[in-house]
Amino acid sequence: MTYIVELVILFVVCDLHRITKSLLKKYGVRPSRRLGQTFLVNCNIARRIVNTLGLDCDTVLEIGGGLGALTIFLARHCRYVVSIEIDKRLSLALRERLAGFDNVDIVCTDFLLMRLFPVDYIVSNVPYSISSQLVLKLAKKPTFKSAILMFQVEFAKRLLAKPGTENYGRLSVFVNLFFKVEKLFWVNKKNFYPVPEVDSMVIRLFPLNPDFKVPLNNLERFTSYIFSQRRRVLKGVLKRLGYLEYVYGLVPEYTLAKRVFQLSPQEILVLAEYLWERGAI
Ligand code: SAH
After folding, report:
1. Which backbone phi and psi does 124 adopt, to 5 degrees?
2. Domain extents for the chain?
3. What is the pLDDT of residue 65?
4. From ligand 1's centre to the CA of 35, what distance in Å?
5. Do strands 200-207 and 146-152 pair parallel, antiparallel, or not at all (unpaired)?
């Protein structure tokens, strides 16, 4: 008997495509590109994402709750869920969808403006338009054990890129200094409504809680300066920026002979720390 009840519940909960469309209609929402509103409509993917969380999941913060495709599974898995949703109408729809759960708080606000608080995990099907800002925000205040984030593949590739490769850039440097980045799995674009132009990838970030000598803003600015000339040889780039005299003799010649996009995150950090200590940046 309980088995049949479970099956019925599973069917109702999992018919995400139908639920998504009917909630959008009921709340008069036309999915907004600007807000990255592409809703997950395959509950197996939602379940798979939530299963990557430890069984110790006490508190979880979801960014961009949407119509609750992930929120429902989070609510079953974790003791307490806070789901952030910027769109007022969606936050109302989300409330309706989660009505049966008393362990979920839905907050209608902009994630980029909110103050982060300690949680076990962060989970998000990340709105494309805020991907970079979201990652940088998490890097600056890593108040969580790990973050499971679904990004468009192109963006995920930038997080995973190794030095010397095409996708390697400022973002890769920054993220790899702050997190251990792990690729989890690929998600076909057909699993979303409306169907986006590209596939997605689920990534896990483990905060490294590094203790840098250089303030983040200076590190960020220095990295963006040198990456504006990514194909040039470092020595020439530093010379043009007036930085070479500060680091000459301190960094090995083979580092100076590399092109900017071949430098490892660690090499860039060391350079920035030297420059900071000498008051150059
Ligand atoms: N988690 C849902 C929805 C993903 S779509 C699912 O997987 O189906 C991304 C959601 O993030 C949208 O609901 C969008 O309205 C919301 N969003 C976009 N920008 C946001 C921001 N700055 N802060 C909070 N939510 C945001």
Report:
1. -160, 140
2. 3-207, 216-277
3. 98
4. 7
5. antiparallel
Average pLDDT over residues 46-64: 95
188 by Cβ neighbours in 10 Å (0-12 / 13-18 / 19+) ranks as exposed
19 burial (CB, 10 Å; 0-12 / 13-18 / 19+) is buried
Check if CATH label 3.50.50.60 holds for domain 3-207: no
**Main-chain dihedrals φ then ψ at residue 272, nearest 5 degrees:** -65, -35
Distance 68 CA to ligand 1 centre (A): 10
Report pLDDT for 228.
Answer: 96
Ligand 1 nearest atom to the CA of residue 111, by list position: 23
The average confidence (pLDDT) of the chain is 94
Token couple for 235: 């020595």
Ligand 1 centroid–CA 43 distance in Å is: 17
CA pair distance 114, 71, nearest whole angstrom: 19
Give mean pLDDT, residues 137-148. Answer: 95
Per-residue pLDDT averaged across 83-97, rounded?
98
For ligand 1, residues with CB inside 6 Å are 35-40, 63-67, 69-70, 84-87, 90, 110-112, 125, 127, 130
Supply the residue whose CA is at minimum distance from atom 19 of ligand 1. Answer: 35
Q: Is the pLDDT of residue 2 over 90?
A: no
Q: Are residues 245 and 268 in contact, defined by beta-carbon separation less than 8 angstroms? A: no
CATH number, domain 216-277, options 3.30.70, 3.40.50, 1.20.120, 1.10.8: 1.10.8
